[in-house]
Amino acid sequence: MHGKTVLITGGTAGLGQATAIALARQGASVVITARDEARGRAAVEAINQRANAAPVRLILLDLASFASVRGAAERFLSEHPRLDVLINNAGVFAARLEQTREGFELQFGVNHLGPFLLSHLLLPALEAAPAPRLVNVASRAHYAGRIDFDDLRGEKHPYRGWRAYARSKLANVLFTREWNRRFPGIPANCLHPGTLRTTIGNKHSPWYVSLTWSLVKPFLTSPERGAATVVYLASSSMVAGIGGRYFDPWQRERRPSPLALDDDLARRLWEVSERLMTEGGLMR
Ligand SMILES: NC(=O)c1ccc[n+]([C@@H]2O[C@H](COP(=O)([O-])OP(=O)(O)OC[C@H]3O[C@@H](n4cnc5c(N)ncnc54)[C@H](OP(=O)(O)O)[C@@H]3O)[C@@H](O)[C@H]2O)c1
């Protein structure tokens, strides 16, 4: 990965941090994002120490705010003419209803809409790379997902955190599929990294959900092992030029859910997401 620039969203913890260390060790020039500057700086220091490679750089990004996504993209583009690999890793699980700055249900906003906008805004840098790649961290939770377009704010039906998470992860797989159709020159793949020992179940959960997650955590897979498929899709020659696929934690291609293979649904999700961005004046 020498000479390649990789942007990983969400490098402060978990899978994103493990991926940053692995790719920095392979010689990539790594940029991570964080919502909070102090946490971001601490993460950069931790990654630099463990990777013992070229220093990792930091960009502030809050995917729950379209203005922040725009700011982060502008900052990246002003500093980097080229982006070889974009890894949309940052994500949340929220057991109770929360909303983004613009009022979308938090998991749909952070896990889908924010990355959708970021990926579009970074297109000029991706297009400037000789063999760019897009990697979207989805989840096997997508198998339980349905896209209910009538409730993107999460207010119409009784809120179920798991259902909303599954929807957002199905959106990741559909986005990957439609991206690949529209931008075949920038192959996109997505993956399930395994059930990982990270803090995802502790952050937007009531105490009993957080406690349950903490109790099962010791039995889960390490983020370092989880990073294997992300690193594979970002760097391996085995997947060069391959796109629109869904991979498991052992780097095997898997058939995603029937809904994830629905081209009409993928197109509709894209058009709805795009309309939300253009109506907000965020995209050309
Ligand atoms: N853990 C699992 O079992 C599992 C399974 C399947 C898929 N995944 C997926 O793996 C990805 C990484 O999750 P993880 O398990 O590593 O979770 P994690 O330890 O909670 O890390 C999530 C990362 O995303 C960042 N993030 C959260 N909200 C954000 C926002 N609004 N804007 C920008 N960044 C934000 C976090 O930053 P802060 O430090 O600021 O919170 C953190 O860096 C997610 O997409 C998740 O859905 C995880």
TrEMBL record:
It comes from the Bacteria. The keyword Transcription does not apply. It holds the Pfam family adh_short. The keyword Oxidoreductase applies. Transmembrane segments: none annotated. Keywords: Oxidoreductase. PANTHER family: PHOSPHATIDYLINOSITOL-GLYCAN BIOSYNTHESIS CLASS F PROTEIN, PHOSPHATIDYLINOSITOL-GLYCAN BIOSYNTHESIS CLASS F PROTEIN-RELATED. This is SDR family oxidoreductase.
